[in-house]
Known about the structure:
Blueprint: E1 7-10, H1 26-39, E2 43-45, H2 53-62, E3 71-77, H3 89-96, E4 101-107, H4 110-115, H5 121-137, E5 141-147, H6 149-155, H7 157-169, E6 174-179, H8 186-199, E7 204-209, H9 216-225, E8 230-233, H10 247-257, H11 270-281, E9 298-299, H12 302-310, E10 328-329, H13 336-344, H14 356-371, H15 379-389, E11 398-406, E12 417-425, E13 428-436, H16 439-452, E14 462-470, E15 481-488, E16 493-500, H17 503-523
Bound molecules: zinc ion.
Amino acid sequence: MNKEKILIFDSTLRDGAQGEGISYSVSDKLSIVRALDDFGVDYIEAGNPGSNPKDIAFFREVRGDTLKHARLCAFGSTHKKGATPESDPNVLSLLRAETPAVSLFGKAWDLHVHKVLMASLEENLDLVGNTVRYFHRQGREVIFDAEHFFDGLRDNPEYTLKVLEVALQAGASCLCLCDTNGGTMPMQVYKDVQLVRERFPTAQIGIHCHNDTGCAVASSVMAVEAGARQVQGTFIGTGERCGNADLSVIIPNLQLKMGYDCVDDSLQDLLQTVRQVTEISNLQVPGNTPYVGASAFAHKGGMHIDGVSKLSSSFEHISPETVGNTRRFLMSEVSGRSMVMRKLATVAPELTRDSEEVAAILARVKELENEGYQFEAADASFELMARRTLGRFEPHFDTIMYRTTSEYPPPAGDNSASAIISLVVDGREETTASMGNGPVHALDMALRKALNVFYPCLSQVRLTDYKVRVLTGEEATASKVRVLIESTDGEHLWTTVGVGTDVVAASWEALCDSLEYMLYRRKGE
Ligand SMILES: [Zn+2]
C-alpha cells in the first residue's frame, strides 16, 4: 500500500521560540536545525529575519549548511500598507535570508483588517496578492499563513475565502489555515478544512493550530482527515500562551494510527530527537507526554505488569520501540514479585520467582520503602540495592569524608558554597575541593573531579533533574527528605534516590549511586 505523504512543518525555532522562558542562541538554532533535518521533517521554519537581528545572523550562518532533506523557511508578513514589496524593509530582509521557502502571514479576518491593520478589505487583498507574487517571482516557495482563518471564516466567510483565492492566484504553493487564537474545536476545524478543500480542490492545504483549548493535536489530526496535507507545529508543543500543536504526538498519531507517511522509518528516532530539542531548549519533557514521556510506557499496578509481561499489547497501545521509547516497570509494594523479576533480568537473570534471593530483595524493598525510599522511578538505585542484597556489589569508590559550607553573601560570582571530599579507589586516597552554586552542586563537582582521575568516562555524566520531597510534615525542618536525581550520559537516562534527615546527605547518597550505576553499566555487568 502506498501511504499518502503528510508534510511536516516544524516551527520550534519560530513560533516555539515565543514560548515563555525560551531563548535560543545562534548555535542553539543551528543544532536544532540539524537534529530536525536528521529526523526528516520537511520544513524548518527558523525565524523572522525582519523583526529580529539574531535571526538575521542565524540565516547568514546557516546558508553554508547543506540540509539532507528539510527545506529551510523564513517567516514574515505581507508588506506594509502604503508601501510596495520592493520598498518594505521587512520584506527585503525576508528575501535576504535566502531560504528556499518563505512563510508569509496575512490577515484573513475582516475584524483584524479593520481594527488592527486599519485598512480597507480591498487594500488587504492587494497586500496579500502583491507580497505573495513578489516572492513567487523571486523563485521562492510561498506558504501562505492565513492568520485567524477560522475566526474569519465564522464572521465573514466570503471575505476570508477571497483572501485565500488571492494568495493562491498570486502563486502560493500552500494555503495554511491558522487557528491563531487557538479557540476552534476539532469538529469545526474538520468542517472548515473540508469547505476550503471543496472550494480549492487542487490547492495544498496546511494546518497551524494553537493549544488554547487543549485540542491542538486533535484539531490538526482532524484537519488531515478533512484533506490538509501539511501540518505545522512544534516539538513538545512549545509556543506562546498554551503552545502550538505538538508534533511529537501528531507524527506518531498520523503514521501509526491513521496510515499516513510523515517521517517514514525515522519514527523510531522520535524520542531521541525530542530529547535533543528539549535539551537545547532547556526544557523537561513532561513524564505523561504521549509516546515520548518517560511514563508513556511505565507500568505500575501488579496486574498490569503481569499482563504486559505475558502479552505487551494487553496494556500498551503500541510497542514503545516504534517511537524509540522503552517499557518501564515501576517498583512499588503493590506491584509485587513479577515486577522484581523483570527488574532483576539484567542483574541476576538466573534467579527464579520462588528463590530465597528474590524473597530477600522483596523484603528489602519493603523495608526501604518504609524508610521513605521509592524505587518506582529510581531504576538505577533499585539495581544497586539488588546487587547489595545479593552480595554482588563491589563499590568503585568509598567515601572517607565530605564537608560543605554555604556562605552569604556569596564570596565570588554565583558560587555560594564549597565542598571538600576524600575517597578511596583501589587503596588510593584522593582528596579534592570545589566551589558550586550550592552545597550539592559543590559536592557533585568535587566528586567528579576526584573520580575523573580513575574513571574518565564519568566526564560524560550530567545531572538533568534534581527533586527534593519532604516526607513527614510533623517535625518541620527536622523531617526526612527524599532526593531524586536524574542523570544522563547523553544517550541514556537513569534515576537514583537518597533519603535522610539531612538534604545534603540524601543528595550525596543519590549522587554516589548515580556514578556507581554508570560505572557498572560501563563494565557491561
Ligand atoms: Zn502560531
